[in-house]
Write a structure and sequence with these properties.
The chain is mostly helical and about 210 residues long. It has ten helices and no strands. The longest helix is centred in the first third of the chain and has 20 residues. The chain is globular and about 60 Å long.
Length: about 210
């Protein structure tokens, strides 16, 4: 009896995709590089599962740039790391004369990738960047991808001690700008790993607003 094996995962073979790969390889850690590649592969498989038509190149750019804002040079930006990541992707795409609507899709996909409950109802590229992130980081839809496909992807892009290391990367990337976690999931990260962090409270913000009533 033979055991079925998944084909080796393939990224889009375009000049734009190759340049994006090199840029991310050169400017991020192995952890973020391998994670970003897995996000593309898992996101594309979820696109197939959901019968979504999408632009592989745009999905790839979104996946590759989605965590670039965790880099040290963005830690004093005062902006959410997702926005810093999206802005870097936007600059990259604009420098290659990519059409504005395509840039908008990639920007939105990256900016919303930690905002659950919204991307899945948007354009396929937006939905699938989040699906890839949720699969790789949270294990959402774990059984939607075959064991053979998981093995092929993680053989190409391993995830040693990934849970601990990605949480450490999140912590270091946003520790200097804790105010950017208000109302989003990264507040959970700082609450767990940064002593003295106090998360913003939406109810207190409403009650303490300058309005008299």
């Amino acid at each position: 009896m033979t055991t079925s094996r998944a084909a080796e995962p393939q990224a889009p073979d375009t000049a734009l995709a190759r340049e994006a790969t090199q840029l991310v390889r050169d400017t991020t850690s192995d952890l973020i590089y391998h994670h970003s590649r897995r996000v593309y592969f898992f996101g594309s498989l979820q696109g197939r599962n959901r019968d979504l038509g999408y632009d592989p190149e745009l999905l790839y750019i979104g996946a590759m740039f989605h965590d670039l804002g965790l880099n040290e040079e963005f830690r004093t930006s005062g902006r959410r790391f997702e926005v810093d990541s999206a802005e870097e992707a936007k600059r990259f795409l604009q420098s290659h004369d990519v059409p504005p609507d395509s840039i908008r899709r990639v920007w939105t996909a990256i900016a919303l990738h930690t905002t659950p409950g919204i991307p899945e109802f948007m354009e396929p590229e937006v939905a699938l960047v989040t699906a890839g992130v949720e699969y790789d980081v949270l294990g959402i839809g774990y059984d939607d991808v075959s064991e053979a496909d998981r093995a092929a992807i993680t053989a190409l892009h391993p995830r040693p001690d990934f849970k601990r290391r990605i949480l450490a990367a999140f912590t270091e990337g946003i520790r200097p700008k804790p105010e950017t976690t208000f109302g989003n999931v990264k507040a959970d990260v700082l609450e767990r790993f940064v002593p003295g962090f106090e998360r913003g409270d939406f109810v207190d913000t409403v009650l303490d607003s300058p309005w008299k009533e």
